[in-house]
Amino acid sequence: MLQFWTAVRKVPTWVFPAAIGLFVLVLPLLGPGYELTRQIELTLILALVVSGLNISLGYAGQLAVGQAAMYAAGAYTAGMLSSAGHTDLLLQIVAAGLAALLVGILTGIPGLRLGSWSLAMTSFFLVLLVPDIVDIFEEDTGGHLGLTTMLNPTLFGRPLAAEAMYYVIVIVTIIWFTVFRNVVASRHGIAFQVLKQSPVLASSVGMSVFRTKLIGYAIGAVPAGFGGALLANLDLFVTPESFTFHVATGVLAASILGGSMSVYGAVFGASIIQFNNDQSSNFAEYSLVFFGAFLLIGGVLLRGGVAGLLRTGIRRLDRAAGLWPRRPAGAASGGAADAVELPPIEAGALEVAEAAKAFGGNHALRGVSLRAEPGQVTALIGPNGSGKTTLLNLVCGFYRRDAGRIIVAGTAIDGASPHRIARLGVTRTFQTPLIPPGVSVAEVVVSGRYTSDEVGFLSAVLRGPKFRRVRRRDLARAEDMLRLVGLEHLSDTEAATLPLGQRRMLEVARALVREPKVLLLDEAASGLDETEVETLAAVIRRIRDAGCAVILVEHNFGLVLSLADRIVVLARGAVLAEGTPEEIENDVRVRDEYLGIVESGDAPAGEEAETLPERTAK
Question: Average pLDDT for residues 501-529, to the nearest whole number?
Answer without folding.
Answer: 90
